């Protein structure tokens, strides 16, 4: 199967031209360039993420879940900025034109794309080691993008969903932990089928002062917000939302997965204390649970406190279980 057949069969859907339902995409796959039409009074937001086997996904993941995850991690960046998804571009290197892989991958990819009304508007395919590179584009009303730089002292610190399950699953794959089969399936789902918090991000426009998605771990990602905003934070470990599976693990494992576990794709955001009710309403409106987990401080640095409010020394020290 040649490159053009491969694209036609798996990635170009319907007419290789304008899809009248594709908001913002005048011409998609089929010419040298896509033609896009930004909405007047809006800003385009663009983000790219590359996925490499062994680093961003394991060879054990099904093609369908991999297609979902490749787009999900990109949509998560749009979610963190409060953007509405519009178009994406896919560049794919494949060792060979494996039709079973392509059928599953494109199915997972388009199921998620359709759920968010985003259109594949172009890209490239080539032979080579498996490598998935996606660029997403979205829109917000002019000046309403949520940025990392807006957190202010005394803002509340919020987190969506639950944290740490993807890391827990990774540790089971690594053999450092074991879980009963049904519990493993549950956390594995979080690692392989993350749900980008697009609806929440949109509901937080004009409300959150800053936001970021958790891709590398809460402490590290929150650190980017603190650095860009020139503030610090106090995080209440006991208030961090976690699944029943993670909540039943030993404390040190919970702490590691909650603070350093990557691949959660939840949103961490800040908002003024007087906006609490409206933040809770944004959570309900987007059917996304949100939790208040700390506070922004004028004093730089991240402080983690336990349930009694005592400072935890070196909360990110590595644990024996996870020496690597
Ligand atoms: Mg991000």
Automatic annotation (TrEMBL):
Tell me which residues bind Mg(2+) 5: 216
How is this protein named in the record? Thiamine-monophosphate kinase
| Family statement | Belongs to the thiamine-monophosphate kinase family.
PANTHER family attached to this UniProt entry: THIAMINE-MONOPHOSPHATE KINASE (PTHR30270:SF0)
HAMAP family attached to this UniProt entry:
TMP_kinase
Q: Binding positions for Mg(2+) 2?
A: 49, 77
Tell me the residue numbers annotated for binding Mg(2+) 1. Answer: 49, 124
Its pathway? Cofactor biosynthesis; thiamine diphosphate biosynthesis; thiamine diphosphate from thiamine phosphate: step 1/1
Enumerate the residues binding Mg(2+) 3: 32, 77, 213
Q: What taxonomic classification does the UniProt entry list for its organism?
A: Bacteria, Pseudomonadati, Pseudomonadota, Betaproteobacteria, Burkholderiales
The answer, when asked if Nucleotide-binding is one of the entry's keywords, is yes
Q: What is the originating organism of this protein?
A: Roseateles aquatilis
Residues binding Mg(2+) 4? 32, 47, 77
Reactions accelerated catalytically: thiamine phosphate + ATP = thiamine diphosphate + ADP
EC number(s) per UniProt? Answer: 2.7.4.16
- The PurM-like N-terminal domain covers which part of the protein? 30-139
- One of the Pfam families matching this protein, by short name: AIRS
Query: In UniProt terms, what function does this protein have?
Result: Catalyzes the ATP-dependent phosphorylation of thiamine-monophosphate (TMP) to form thiamine-pyrophosphate (TPP), the active form of vitamin B1.
Q: Which residues bind ATP?
A: 123-124, 148, 215
């Amino acid at each position: 199967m040649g490159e053009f057949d491969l694209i036609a069969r798996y990635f170009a859907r319907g007419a290789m031209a304008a899809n009248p339902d594709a908001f913002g995409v005048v011409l998609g796959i089929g010419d040298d360039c896509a033609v896009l039409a930004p909405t007047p009074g809006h800003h385009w937001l663009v983000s790219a993420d590359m996925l490499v086997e062994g680093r961003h996904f394991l060879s054990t993941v099904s093609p369908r879940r991999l297609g979902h995850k490749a787009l999900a991690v990109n949509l998560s960046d749009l979610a963190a900025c409060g953007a509405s998804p519009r178009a994406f571009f896919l560049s794919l290197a494949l060792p060979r034109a494996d039709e079973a892989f392509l059928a599953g991958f494109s199915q997972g990819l388009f199921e998620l794309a359709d759920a968010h009304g985003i259109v594949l508007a172009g890209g490239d395919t080539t032979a080579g080691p498996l490598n998935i590179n996606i660029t997403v584009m979205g829109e917000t009303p002019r000046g309403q993008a949520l940025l990392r730089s807006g957190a202010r002292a005394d803002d509340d610190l919020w987190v969506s969903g639950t944290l740490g399950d993807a890391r827990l699953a990774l540790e089971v794959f690594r053999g450092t932990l074991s879980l009963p089969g049904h519990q493993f399936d549950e956390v594995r789902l979080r690692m392989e089928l993350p749900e980008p918090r697009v609806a929440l991000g949109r509901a937080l426009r004009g409300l959150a002062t800053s936001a970021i998605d958790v891709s590398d771990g809460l402490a590290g990602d929150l650190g980017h917000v603190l650095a860009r905003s020139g503030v610090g934070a106090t995080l209440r470990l006991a208030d961090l939302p976690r699944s029943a599976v993670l909540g039943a693990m030993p404390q040190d494992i919970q702490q590691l997965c909650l603070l350093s576990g990557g691949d959660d794709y939840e949103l961490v955001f800040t908002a003024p204390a007087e906006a609490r009710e409206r933040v809770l309403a944004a959570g309900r409106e987007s059917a996304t649970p949100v939790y208040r987990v700390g506070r922004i401080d004028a004093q730089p640095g991240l402080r983690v406190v336990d349930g009694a409010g005592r400072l935890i020394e070196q909360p990110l020290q590595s644990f024996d279980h996870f020496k690597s």
